[in-house]
Design goal:
eight-stranded parallel β-barrel; alpha/beta; about 40% helix; single chain; 8 strands
């Protein structure tokens, strides 16, 4: 499943840490999409399978209603059962080739990459896009070490699929990513950790468009 690189301009990654409850969580997701996020990844690390699947089904339905792409973190089985558009796996999660085999050709597969070698391996395994980083220091994943601008550029030059920068991306540093061959940025706290997620997403979307204005 392929989608336009422009769709990746602003990719929102959820974190329920800033939500008061489940309803607030889904309001935040809707706000992110209305603010300009065309793709949203549902990231859950602590929910039991039944609760995760119920949430994923509601998430996928909301994204369909809003015209956004729905991605599930780590779990192809949940993505398929929920009717989501795809799954994203990290280097320490399910192998990309196995994820592609489980998903089949009709779903999106995103893979995290921290080097040119990992990017090429992911592409060969059937990845449709890459999450590249950490682009900056981030509090969301304590073990995510920032990679150099040269490494990001090497990754994007090595593959013919969209790549988004992830890790510590904010309105203060987003323009530092100009000229690296990225299709967009993936943001967690810069959207979901803000008092007004829709306004935050709209500002980020406007900033990321500046990366492609020349």
């Amino acid at each position: 499943m392929g989608i336009s690189p422009e769709t990746f301009r602003l990719y929102a990654v959820t974190d329920r840490a800033w939500a008061a409850d489940e309803e607030d969580f889904f309001h935040q997701i809707e706000a992110a999409v209305r603010g300009g996020a065309a793709i949203v990844q549902l990231r859950e690390k602590r929910l039991e399978d039944d609760a995760f699947l119920a949430e994923a089904r509601r998430f996928a339905a909301l994204c369909r209603e809003l015209g956004a792409v729905s991605i599930i973190n780590d779990r192809p089985d949940i993505a398929l059962a929920a009717g989501a558009d795809g799954v994203h796996v990290g280097q320490d999660d399910l192998a990309a080739g196995r994820a592609r085999a489980l998903l089949g050709p009709g779903k999106l597969l995103g893979v995290s990459a921290h080097s040119r070698t990992e990017a090429l391996r992911a592409r060969a395994a059937g990845a449709d896009y890459l999450g590249v980083g950490a682009a900056f220091a981030t509090g969301t994943k304590a073990d995510a070490r920032p990679i150099s601008r040269e490494t990001i550029r090497a990754v994007t030059a090595a593959v013919d699929i969209p790549a988004v920068a992830i890790g510590g991306v904010s309105r203060e540093n987003i323009l530092e990513l100009r000229g690296l061959g990225l299709s967009g940025v993936a943001v967690v706290s810069g959207i979901f950790g803000q008092k007004h997620p829709e306004a935050a997403a709209r500002e980020l979307r406007a900033l990321v468009e500046q990366l492609y204005s020349e």
